[in-house]
Amino acid sequence: MWSFSASGCRWLGAGGALAVAVGGWAAGTLPVRGGGALWEPRGSALTVVGAVLAYLGLTLLVAAWWRYGVLLARGLRDGVLATLACWTAPLLLAPPLHSADVYSYIAQGAMVLEGHDVYGSGPSVLGPGDLGWDAAASVGGNWTDTPAPYGPAFLLLAAAVVKVTGGAVVPAVLGLRLIAVGALALTVWAVRGLGGGPGGRDGALWLAALNPLLLIHVVGGMHNDGLMIGLMLGGVLLATRGRWVLGSVLVGLAMMVKSPAAVALLFIGVLLARGGGARAFLKGLVLPGAVAGAVAAGASLLAGTGFGWLRTQSVAAAIHTPLSLTSDLGLALGLLSGGEAEPVKSVVQKLGLVAALAVVAVLAWRAYRGRLDPVLGLGLSLVALVALSPMVQPWYLLWGTVVVAAAAWRGRAGQVLAVLSAALVYETQPSGHTPWYGFVLAGLVLAAGLVWVRREPWAAGPLPRPPVPPQRTRAAREATRAADSAELRPPH
User: Which of 107, 298, 423, 462 has the fewest CB atoms below 10 angstroms from its CB?
Assistant: First the structure.
């Protein structure tokens, strides 16, 4: 497999994506109600077969992606967009994969249309006869009574999809997948525009858009993180071209999908302030946030949902996720203390956020002083925020990975993030559950990947030139011409 050409990688990955999609029809995150004959739960034996097929397909996709990246890092030029199309197409009509969050999106969009307070209650308020009732039945147990942590811009999109589809589960899911594909296209545009640093656009798109973590969780799982990333990165691209007002508008819209996009405003401010005096510094510190704040206020009023999103940003932290280092550490310290674990856990979570903000501040200062590329600083800041967050899901890694890819995909950070992406894609089942063996598989991939990083580190400089064939000597050229003449001479 490791001798595969770029074309071989393209078709191997396409076959893997197809296996993921076919397996998902039996073992994906199928709806409890409303899937009809198309997406109905299958028998246990068929579900197991589907899960095995999906995992095998996922492994083929990861292997093809990894090999493709190695070829690009060695200087290969290839049709990366064609590869992206081949890997994305099989997932377009698949059921939801690796997460049930899309059912929450549909239910929350329906709550907006039905007049419920989406920031005061969860999808369980929907009853028979309400739009989105079928989707609400498939919402994960932790989220049934949880208010929406998303901004009003995304809720308006979800409501529009529900209105157009009448809340029917299958059309609504496909409508949200269309939005996810649009977010992918926006991300591709922004990454290509930013250039990817040394090594160029092809490699940047490899790490950002062809990343199996993105394909599985944004295209397959339709997580709105993809839309947040696309809008945020598009705003950063415009800011690097001097159009910081429009860039701040896009980041404001990204914030109204998910709030972590606000970190980008600090680095847009850095772009404004660098090279200027105190006035430029104040301009960079205040104006991007003011523009984005106006966008947030307008979206909140237009949606009719009010400003309740401000108070629901911490609701997700109440749910323990094993990937959150601060939550795990806080829980362990709380249990060791012999008292109540939750207060200790809460303190450690808050300290983690303080540490993340300190890291962001240091990176922004380094970017302001010209010691760090601002786009790379933003990417590293988002990685730090995820690493120290009280709630971490596998696809959160994409927040920073896509941005790092757009700035310096061939650096050590890009290579390590590629390994983490390949590992975390195994953490959840196609059904959305998190089994123990998912962590085992992720650990094995992580260990193998880190060994690879140590043995074959990518240089951050210019791509290596392809080998030039040695020049033949004059005698060798004359011998070749004589042999050709002898072949063409007619027999006596």
Answer: 462
Asked whether the beta carbons of 113 and 165 are under 8 A apart, the reply is no
Q: Give me 246's structure tokens.
A: 């429009």
Tokens of 443: 């650990």
Measured torsion, CA atoms of residues 302, 307, 313, 318, in degrees rounded to the nearest 10: -120
For residues 331 and 39, give the distance between their C-alpha atoms in angstroms, rounded to a whole number. 39
Which of the two residues, 19 and 482, has the higher pLDDT score? 19
DSSP annotation of 215 reads: I
Residues 193, 240: Cα–Cα separation, whole Å: 10
- The rounded distance, in Å, linking the Cα atoms of 111 and 135 is 11
Distance CA 259, CA 234 (A): 16
Distances from the Cα of 425 to the Cα of 45, 397, 463, angstroms: 24, 10, 28
Element housing 380 (H / E)? helix 374-387
For the stretch 416-441, pLDDT in tens is 999 999 999 999 999 999 999 999 99
Average pLDDT, the chain: 90
Quick one: average pLDDT of 108-125?
Answer: 94
Alpha helices in 305-430 (DSSP H): 325-337, 341-368, 374-387, 397-408, 412-424
User: Minimal CA–CA distance to 52: which of 11, 29, 19, 98?
Assistant: 19
pLDDT at residue number 466? 46
Inform me whether the pLDDT recorded for 261 exceeds 70. Answer: yes
Question: Who contacts 101 (Cβ-Cβ below 8 Å, separation ≥6)?
Answer: 140, 143, 221, 222, 223
CB 168 within 8 A of CB 34: yes
What pLDDT does residue 482 have?
52
| Residue 10 burial class via C-beta count within 10 angstroms: exposed 0-12, middle 13-18, buried 19 and up | buried
Q: Note the pLDDT of residue 476.
A: 52
Centre a 10 Å sphere on the Cβ of residue 416 and count the other Cβ atoms it contains: 16
